From TrEMBL:
<feature type="repeat" description="HEAT">
    <location>
        <begin position="47"/>
        <end position="85"/>
    </location>
</feature>
<dbReference type="InterPro" id="IPR039852">
    <property type="entry name" value="CAND1/CAND2"/>
</dbReference>
<feature type="domain" description="TATA-binding protein interacting (TIP20)">
    <location>
        <begin position="1076"/>
        <end position="1250"/>
    </location>
</feature>
<dbReference type="InterPro" id="IPR011989">
    <property type="entry name" value="ARM-like"/>
</dbReference>
<dbReference type="GO" id="GO:0010265">
    <property type="term" value="P:SCF complex assembly"/>
</dbReference>
<keyword id="KW-0677">Repeat</keyword>
<keyword id="KW-0833">Ubl conjugation pathway</keyword>
<dbReference type="InterPro" id="IPR013932">
    <property type="entry name" value="TATA-bd_TIP120"/>
</dbReference>
<dbReference type="InterPro" id="IPR016024">
    <property type="entry name" value="ARM-type_fold"/>
</dbReference>
<dbReference type="Pfam" id="PF08623">
    <property type="entry name" value="TIP120"/>
</dbReference>
<protein>
    <recommendedName>
        <fullName>TATA-binding protein interacting (TIP20) domain-containing protein</fullName>
    </recommendedName>
</protein>
<comment type="similarity">
    <text>Belongs to the CAND family.</text>
</comment>
<dbReference type="InterPro" id="IPR021133">
    <property type="entry name" value="HEAT_type_2"/>
</dbReference>
């Protein structure tokens, strides 16, 4: 926005035309709100008197615009001017309130008050010092004078926006003041005082001073109550204030329920119970003389008392509330059925015969049949009783035995309550109880005995909650559902009934066999319109997720299939209805694979099939729906044998789908699904040679795509298709083109997963292709450049490719070509030539190499290192398949002493290959060598690692290796890790055993619980890291192992800390679903403790007259900040779902990272904070302490000086650190400006930084 002429603006603001005055204020406000505005303070301050004048303008629109114009001014004037402006506005409030002796109790607010409040509630936040000055100036004025609506509203805004500067003593005094006002004022002022009271509680916490304030406050509330005449207002207010306090406690950090003293808890509970007036219920109700207004008042008080007890349950752990549990149960039993005006069961009803002339009006009939009509408010007590039961169940799951024995009968009766709200909440409570009684609920299984005196609810098999649910409660619920709930007059409440039914289906596998049939009968009898209804779709989904098709009647299955067709076909159906219908169709189709005969469903399946294919290419539907319809079509094809007509339609749909970018990926995934399952339809596709060839042609095009995901899924499908014999039908040029492409991709990728597929496909199409020199040279290049290290590569597909090549060429010169062109030092070269030798029975070649190696070992006849490496690896590969004639294991063991490291490593790998031929004889030799020869232990472990690549080893072999390795490690020094390389190799071997047999993970967990040897601990962590990377399932046991390992992070061992944090990082990348739930309470607190430099890891090295400090813990901290970096980059939804507080992460980085003396840590901290600010601006203003702290640490870093005689590296690091801090400052400022958030302290800091570091500032981009 261009600069503004203030003189001209003032003239417009004083014009007689109200429109011009309005426009002047609009221009002024827009100018100030522009982020780039740099107006002078003097110009803006000169306009303030005009704003005050316009607050009294006769035109309402001008007044309103003037009110809005004050808040933006705050950004541009000094703290002193701000305080002066606020006080001036307050004076205007006082003038307006006193002018004309206006009523102080009026419920409207003044214009100056609106202005003042708009400033407090704007994004222009005040510095701590100014906030303190404002509080000191305003609070006494507001509470020491007569309380008006203006003053109480201002007090609320002050507490909400500036309460962070209040001391505990001030908070306590204000709490007492607002409580007193609430008791003395029975109008809007009193109600707003409770709001102020609630806001003040937010500034307390779990500390001891806060605890004392809260307990004393509850005492003060009762003292104030006792000093006043008892009234309906004072009773309800007392209970409400108790509830406000109880609710606020739940929000305190580290709240564990121990804030309230035992006497305070007892006092709250006794007050609430007193107002329940249980004794009054024993008095017989005299309808004619009873004061019904009094009944209503008493019931409303009782409702408030039940609310307080409910809040007490929510606020306290079971151990603090357990003493009041029995009395609470009695209250619920009493009031869940409390309905004094329900005379339906009275015996004194008027008897009317058929000839009676008495007639009732339609209105009276409506009243008598309206469940909501109750003029005594007793329904509220029944409703609160149901809610209280739900709260107890959710908060204290171990009380389930008591709930079942004492409350379930009441709750099942309450389902039929004449008030719909009570009935609905009773059903919700039953749903909660049933969910908490799930078979897999570990809390239930560990329930302890809890019961009322004289009752036995111990956790025996027959009295356990799950047993009672299955045998006692479910039959009752079934009866009530079908006889009382699923009836025509309650049709509008079916959604809540369906939720109860879904819960029963999900949790209870012992439902009666007729249960689902009864549901279907109810639907048919009531003639319900279920199609396109999300509640019924949810029911269908639950049914088929928890039941086999055979457990549902044919009629019901057909009805559901028809319903799904209607929902999909309906042009008015919403996107989510169609999407859910397709999802349910997929679930049903997957269920059909277990059914042999589908004759009963053919008609409806065909109808649903036609509904689905209409969506596939109809562009009026979203891309998500079209993709989902193709997925549904593939599941139908994969699990159900369809008609010839449907098969042709499906084939055409799939072919067409491969032409659209929106559907190509999902179509290929669908074909992978169909072909992988090898269903009957699969074989029909194989007969369609044209379709297969069309598919291959398409896939050849797709694997040339720059889209990595399309390329990979296309490779997967091509891998499946090339297993088919019809691949012979490929034309030669097409096969050669494909082979050329595959070789090219293999030359360019380093991804072993892709290479595995590529080799598989090449091996299968090779018989149909020309294997010319170009192909051979490409293959040689792949082996020499891409397969230099194949330790972690599954060579199965490569071996298959070489076997196919050997069979195709079937001549000895292939061996010569490879011997001449391959890098003979590589294992893959020896492996390739061993396959060719075995395939073509080149025994002379094998004998030649064997003689050469034997002469070297026994006769010391020299050969080149490259040839020696080849011989060792070649013969090792041969020896894994057939027995060697001259060379035995002992010869290879001698090679482990060779001075050349490459020779030793090659020999160790060959030993692992050789052992497999006679494992019972040779393994003990290897294990003895491992145990006795410490110098060769690494090499022996490499041999074991190679051996364990064989998946067919029996458990006795695994157990022998497992025990010998652990026995050896356990003998190492308790507190010294001598060789991390050896322990890493041990971990690799042991992790491979855990992958082969998951039972070894359980053995590992047992070892974790009793270990103290730090070498053993390090090895366990290495195993955990490997499992995090490679274990594909069994996350539960892996999670247990992880949690047991976390305690090792507290050890003062650098290697262990580095290994464990690196493992956590691996877990975040590979198994986030396992690690994220454990971050908030288990992992992050330990990581935060590692963010600060520790003196124990600092080593002082004297160098001449100087002493240099080496921080050996630096790498640990760098790993920690990398871990936080990874966490910050997760989606917001994932972080929220797992209760990960990014504010806590940010505070720790600010307090520990930006104050670190190492420039590397400052740089990493700045990067993390940049990501945090960009992720969520509100992180900066989560409370009023972070931004001031951030300013201080940024200043600290900016004021650091480069030490004299710094090295080039130190200079570069220093400059990079400075740039990172400046970049962080620019990102923060940009976020503050974009979000229109003003802070005077930040503005001052940023201006100074920009001036003092102008060159760095201009060189840094954001």
């Amino acid at each position: 926005m261009p600069e503004i002429n203030f003189n001209s603006l003032k003239d417009k603001a004083l014009d007689v035309d109200p429109d011009l005055r309005f426009m002047a204020l609009e221009d002024f406000k827009k100018y100030l709100n522009e982020p780039t505005t740099a107006a002078s303070t003097k110009s803006i301050e000169s306009f303030i008197p005009l704003l005050f004048r316009l607050l009294k303008d006769t035109n309402a629109n001008v007044q309103s615009q003037a009110v809005k114009s004050f808040a933006p001014v705050i950004r541009f004037i000094s703290s002193e001017s701000i305080l002066k402006l606020l006080n001036q506005l307050y004076e205007e409030i006082l003038k307006e309130n006193t002018a004309g002796h206006k009523d102080y109790k009026k419920i409207t607010t003044s214009i100056p008050n609106m202005t003042l409040r708009s400033i407090f509630n704007s994004n222009s936040k005040f510095s701590n010092r100014l906030s303190r000055d404002i509080v000191d100036s305003f609070v006494p004025k507001l509470i020491d004078n007569t309380i008006t609506i203006d003053s109480i509203e201002l007090l609320i805004d002050l507490i909400k926006n500036l309460g962070f500067v209040l001391t505990n003593e001030e908070i306590a005094n204000l709490l007492h003041t607002t409580m007193t006002i609430a008791f003395e004022e029975e109008n809007i002022i009193g109600k707003r005082s409770v709001i102020a009271f609630d806001l003040l509680l937010n500034y307390l916490d779990s500390s001891e001073p806060s605890c004392n304030i809260l307990n004393e406050l509850i005492n003060q509330i009762s003292l104030k109550f006792n000093s006043l005449a008892i009234s309906l207002h004072s009773i309800n207010l007392r209970l409400s204030l108790f509830s406000v306090i109880l609710k606020s406690m739940k929000s305190y950090d580290d709240y564990d329920g121990s804030i309230l003293f035992g006497t305070t808890i007892k006092h709250i509970f006794q007050v609430a119970v007193t107002y329940m007036k249980m004794d009054d219920l024993d008095t017989e109700l005299d309808v004619e003389d009873y004061d019904f207004d009094l009944m209503i008042q008493e019931n409303l008080i009782r409702e408030n008392a039940l609310n307080t007890i409910n809040d007490l349950v929510n606020a306290l752990p079971l151990e603090l509330f357990e003493g009041y549990l029995n009395d609470t149960i009695k209250l619920i039993q009493t009031f869940i059925g409390y309905d004094p005006l329900n005379f339906e069961n009275d015996n004194d009803e008027i008897d009317l015969d058929e000839d009676s002339e008495i007639e009732f009006s339609d209105d009276e009939d409506d009243i008598n049949n309206n469940d909501d009509y109750e003029n005594d408010c007793s329904w509220k007590l029944r409703n609160k009783s149901a809610i209280l039961t739900r709260t107890i169940t959710s908060r204290y799951p171990t009380t389930l035995p008591l709930i079942y024995s004492e409350l379930i009968p009441c709750m099942t009766d309450a389902m039929n309550d004449r008030n719909d709200i009570v009935s609905n909440d009773s059903i919700k409570t039953l749903i909660t109880i049933i969910n908490c009684t799930s078979v897999d609920n570990e809390i239930t299984s560990s329930s302890r005995k809890l019961g009322r005196s004289g009752s036995d609810v111990s956790m025996t098999i027959e009295s356990s909650p799950i047993y009672q649910l299955f045998t006692g409660v479910t039959p009752i619920l079934e009866n009530k559902i079908f006889n009382n709930l699923l009836v025509s007059k309650k049709i509008n409440r079916f959604p809540i009934f369906l939720k109860l039914i879904e819960t029963l289906i999900t949790v209870n596998y012992q439902l009666s066999t007729d249960f689902l049939n009864e549901i279907f009968n109810a639907i048919k009898t009531l003639n319900l319109n279920t199609s396109g209804n999300m509640e019924y779709l949810s029911l269908y989904k639950t049914i088929f997720l928890n039941n086999e098709i055979g457990e549902v009647s044919n009629d019901f299955v057909n009805y559901i299939l028809s319903d799904l067709s209607k929902s999909i076909d309906n042009k008015t159906s919403y996107h989510n209805i169609i999407m859910e219908s397709l999802n349910i169709s997929i679930i049903i189709f997957q269920n059909f694979k277990r059914i042999d005969k589908l004759n009963a469903f053919e008609s409806q399946i065909h109808k649903l099939f036609n509904s689905i294919i209409k969506i596939c290419h109809d562009k009026q539907y979203s891309s998500e729906l079209r993709q989902k319809s193709i997925s549904a079509l593939s599941e139908l094809n994969a699990n159900i044998e369809i008609s010839e007509d449907s098969f042709i339609k499906t084939t055409n749909i799939l072919k067409e789908s491969l032409n659209y970018e929106v559907t190509v990926k999902v179509t290929i995934e669908s074909l992978v699904n169909i072909f992988n399952k090898k269903c009957k339809n699969f074989w029909r596709y194989l007969k369609e040679a044209d379709f297969v060839n069309f598919l291959i042609a398409k896939l050849i095009a797709f694997i040339s795509s720059t889209d990595d995901s399309l390329y990979y899924i296309s490779l997967k499908l091509l891998d499946i298709i090339t297993k088919i014999q019809h691949i012979d039908n490929l034309e030669d040029d097409q096969a050669n083109k494909l082979l050329s492409l595959l070789v090219g991709f293999s030359e360019s990728t380093t991804d072993y997963t892709q290479l595995y597929l590529l080799f598989n496909i090449m091996g299968r199409i090779l018989p149909n292709c020309d294997t010319n020199d170009k192909f051979l040279q490409g293959l040689i290049k792949i082996m020499n450049e891409k397969l230099t290290d194949v330790d972690d590569f599954d060579l199965t597909s490569f071996e298959f490719l070489i076997q196919q090549l050997s069979r195709k060429l079937c001549k000895e010169n292939l061996s010569e070509i490879f011997m001449t062109n391959l890098n003979l030092k590589l294992f893959i070269s020896a492996k390739t030539l061993s396959i060719i030798a075995l395939e073509n029975n080149l025994q002379d070649k094998i004998d030649e190499e064997e003689v050469e190696l034997n002469n070297y070992i026994d006769n010391d006849i020299s050969i080149s290192n490259d040839k020696l490496l080849f011989d060792i690896q070649f013969l090792g590969s041969i020896g894994s398949q057939k027995e060697l004639r001259l060379i035995k294991l002992a010869s290879f063991l001698r090679l482990l002493k060779n001075p050349n490291e490459s020779i030793r490593l090659a020999s160790s790998r060959s030993i692992g290959l050789l052992i497999i031929k006679d494992i019972n004889k040779d393994l003990p030799l290897l294990l003895d060598s491992y145990e006795k020869n410490e110098d060769e232990r690494d090499l022996n472990l490499i041999s074991m690692k190679q051996l364990l690549k064989n998946d067919d080893l029996n458990n006795s072999v695994l157990l022998e290796i497992w025990d010998r390795i652990w026995d050896t490690i356990s003998r190492y020094n308790e507190k010294i890790i001598s060789s991390t390389s050896e322990l890493r190799l041990s971990g690799d071997v042991l992790s491979r055993m855990c992958l082969l047999n998951n039972n070894y993970i359980s053995k590992l967990i047992d070892k974790v619980d009793s270990v103290s040897n730090e070498s053993t601990i390090y090895t366990i962590i290495v195993i955990l890291k490997q499992l995090m990377h490679k274990l594909e399932n069994n996350n539960d046991i892996l999670s247990t192992l992880l949690l047991h390992n976390l305690k090792f992070l507290t050890l003062s061992n650098i290697e262990i800390k580095q290994a464990l944090i690196g493992t956590l990082l691996t877990g975040l990348h590979n198994k986030p679903e396992l690690l994220l739930p454990n971050l908030p309470n288990r992992v992050l607190p330990l990581v935060y403790d590692e963010l600060s430099a520790k003196d124990e890891f600092k080593k002082i090295i004297p160098m001449g007259p100087y002493k240099y400090v080496i921080d050996e813990g630096l790498e640990i901290r760098k790993l920690c900040y990398e871990l936080l970096y990874t966490i910050i980059l997760f989606e917001d939804s994932l972080l929220k779902a797992n209760n990960i507080n990014i504010y806590d992460i940010g505070v720790n980085i600010v307090n520990k990272g930006l104050t670190d003396s190492e420039t590397d840590i400052v740089i990493l901290s700045s990067i993390n904070l940049v990501n945090l600010v960009n992720k969520d601006f509100h992180f900066l203003i989560y409370n009023n302490e972070l931004l001031p702290k951030l300013i201080d640490v940024l200043k600290l870093n900016l004021n650091k000086k480069l030490k004299s005689k710094a090295s080039t590296q130190e200079t570069e690091n220093f400059e990079e650190s400075l740039r990172s801090v400046v970049k962080l400052s620019k990102v923060i400022n940009n976020s503050l400006v974009i979000n229109n958030y003003n802070n005077n302290d930040w503005n001052l800091f940023y201006a100074e930084m920009k001036t003092n570091f102008i060159l760095t500032f201009n060189s840094v981009d954001i």
